[in-house]
Specification:
9 helices; mainly alpha; two-stranded antiparallel sheet
Length: about 240
Amino acid sequence: MDSAVVWVADDYIHQSRELTRYRQELSKDSTRLRNRIRGLLRRQGLVCPYTDLTGKGAGKWLNQATQGMPERVGRILEGMRADLTAKADHLEQVTELIAGEAQVNELALLLQTVPGIGPLLALTIVVEIGDIGRFETAQKLRGYSGLVPLVRQSGERRYTGSLKKQGNHRLRWALVMASGHFAASTKTRELSLTARYRYHVYKHGPNPAKVALARRLVDIIFAMLRDHSAFQPRRYLTREVE
């Protein structure tokens, strides 16, 4: 992994990282609990037709399902649902805190001009990067994020493999998420970046395509943070593929 110069985060960065990282862990916990609930239902021969297990429709469905279960299993389900509701409420509160912070952070506001990057991803990217001045080039930032693939060479042949198992995995997560949202946005349909993404989907599949687009977004974000400039879609109107 390309190294960055020695840099010590200030209190603001430390506290903001605690907030965004805590939110990520809450989201993971919530997802695991949802999967546990669906697993319990499957073991009872049931499949909930609702995507959101905390919604009104799912609530009514789960209440009816609980009535037909053995008493002890029903109590377990009720407890898991109560935990999920509490986690969902807390997750919403933390998300609102992050959204508020992202609206007063100058750099996070700049990143929100990129289609698909909302308050959560913007603040996460900003605080995980820290001082952009510690990275000499966009390639250095790529290395820090762990978006640099392994390269193997045999004779005259050069092979590009999976991503290195190094780098800031939280930043990498945010960038890959941002690339997926960017490619799906109606605002990016005519951009060369999206055309390149579709080409990579055709050649290599959706996940490698997201990573390839994330690497390109690193270059853009590096320039935006360095120059304190907003995203300029006109620069990417010409369609191109690699």
